[in-house]
Design brief:
mainly beta, 11 strands
Length: 198
Amino acid sequence: MPGAPHNAATQWFGPAFERLHPLLQALHRSGGSLSGEVAISTGSGLAGRLGRRLARRLGIPLDRPRRGFQVRIVHDGQAMHWRRRFDDGSELVSTFRPVGHYPDGHWLEHTGPARLRLGVDLADGGWRWRLRSVALRGLPLPRFLFPRTDAYKRIEDGDRYRFAVAFSLFPLGELLRYEGALHAIPADPAVNVERVAT
């Protein structure tokens, strides 16, 4: 990719990086911040109780169905750092470290005590995470004990960053979901050198 800064994302995707929508390429080439409103929901009955518990552990506020939301994405040669902040000050911080290269490689996401091994599917310029395995506090968990995760991002309406993260557990159904359509915040020149504290 001539002219593209090399970081964990561009190196991991290699030539497939060009399959991403140009706005996703820019975000994952140079980093940046996105802002907007997210909808947050939990299931009903037992699924709702489990979803509320999961939300508390992740730091996702549930007192209102819609919240202001901002995510800051910073890249370096070894990792992607994501800081998600809700308008009540709650934060969800993740570090993603690449292993191998697209399409057979994966990312290791560290969020609190959880470590997820994630593959990536590319379609229509978007990116969908594919959960491969889970470890909690270093102990591998059987996949059936962990909620199924569905997470994607894509561009819609020309300049909106549409994303959704949903957790479901068979046979209960959806436990927790948060999703929104975000817009880019004008670039901060220091964004690519600043590290997100984890």
